[in-house]
Sequence to fold (588 residues):
Amino acid sequence: MTHPVERIQLTVRAAVAGMLLGGFMSLSNLYVALKTGWSIGVSITAGILAFAIFSALLRLGIVRKAFGILENNAMQSVASAAGYMTGGGTVAAIPALMMMTGQPMGGMQMFVWITTIALLGVVMAIPMKQQMINVEQLRFPTGVAAAETLLALHGEEGDAAGKAKILGWSGVIGATVGFLRDAKSSYIPWNLPEKIQVPFLTLKGRPLVDYTLAAEGSLIMVGAGAIMGFRAAWSMALGALINYGVLAPQLYEAGIIDSKLGYKQIVAWSVWFGSAMILTSGLLSFAFQWRTVVRAVKSVGAAFGVPDTLEELAEVPMRWFFIGLAVLTPIIIFLEWFLFGIQPWMGAISVILGFFISIVACRATGETDTTPTGALGKITQITFGMLDPGNATTNLMTANVTGGMGLHAADLLTDLKSGWILKADPRQQFWGQLLGVLAGSIFVVPAYRLLIPTADELGTDKWPAPGAQTWKGVAELLAKGFHTLHPSAQIALAVGAGLGIVIVLIERSFPKAKAYIPSATGLGLAFTTPGYNSISMFIGASIALWLEKRHPAIAEKGVVAASSGLIAGESLMGVLIAVLVVAGLLNG
Fold:
């Protein structure tokens, strides 16, 4: 029977563009996530850039055919998979393991590890697509937004060109700031300051910057704050003020915090408060979605029926799911044993658990546009904390497997939602995702090894790795036990855990007042990231809010594009500077 969709959408140029754009954005996501604990969306930015690039090439006569909307959709699938390759562990589980062991992971080991997890996640999405997208038509808001963006781009070239121009110029500004701040050599006479602080002000006899209370000389955090939204940003600013401006000085005076002060010394205590709040709030919010979990598990069984319509025949065949499962599962189990000493039977349980977590992650993303990989990963950590008590590596890396699978499964369904709206070929999007996974790994692994050659700089001002701090904290707590913490840290953990629960309950009791209730995630994250990150993010969010109130048309058109450009430009410059240092062209 002839396939209903005969047009080639995943063309060579769409695949190459997606691999390159997504690959470069994965570097940006890696850099930003290691700094802030947040990741930035990829697909919409990639769609705008690809449209602008190919439109320019068409006008110059370099290409003969316009870049079609379905080509752009296929390109987005590739780029999205590549851009989210940081979700395979490179910003959470792997740096957490490095901080615990002091040992780096080999480049080839990391490549095979994160690639296999991502590929299995893509495969896991196959049985969920028809039920969640075709039948139930779950919203998947980012997928809808990506499709609407493509429809607008390919219908209103002027709007696309304007957004691309904003993104391009802000990228140049971000790259320039990054170079002038970080590039050090004898032929560079001066540098922008790394920290902008208020002079002469002190706390307990120490300058504010010792408590990380300053603004970072970076536009990445400003851009990230503008994108993340005002509630999360003011919650982080509040948390930074409490942690670094109130608690840390008291703890320093009491001798509980090392007299060196600085981020690394303070976060060794405050991570317990922040991690506990993130953990309990995430798990409770997830528990309140129990109906989503039940619906997810029940509905996915419908996908295993025999296709009997043209639409079902056009889907990714179910046999691809079983083939992928048969090929990739033994590899994952072997890697868990070979790299981390995890028993094969536990590796098998992690894959089975990963399947159900992928189901829940996909439905949660479809209904709320939020993939709860943090909470779902913690469920795995707790599970294996009981199955293999005292072994932090087991509960950490099995959670890496299940969380990574869930993230990549949800990412594919988000892309397939765009394709479903545009009547694209899901099989070509599936292959696009596989290409994107490989491209993202090729970009991310060398960049990670270049930026983080040893574990020494992780958890410091340079690379705070807030996400890894939380994963490491939970792993160590499950392995060592509550009693091993300093008494004040035990109190902080209990208070943080309780406050995380209270905030979620207040949110549910007073949903209309949610904007005025601090975000538990934002508040908790402020206790695991330097204060100057939170301050800079608050500045960016405040600027975005002011524009939204005073100049909504400008905000709608320019905030995301300008912020994405600043983040991409400065983060890519950061990676380039690291390359130049290794090459001996700049000082380290």
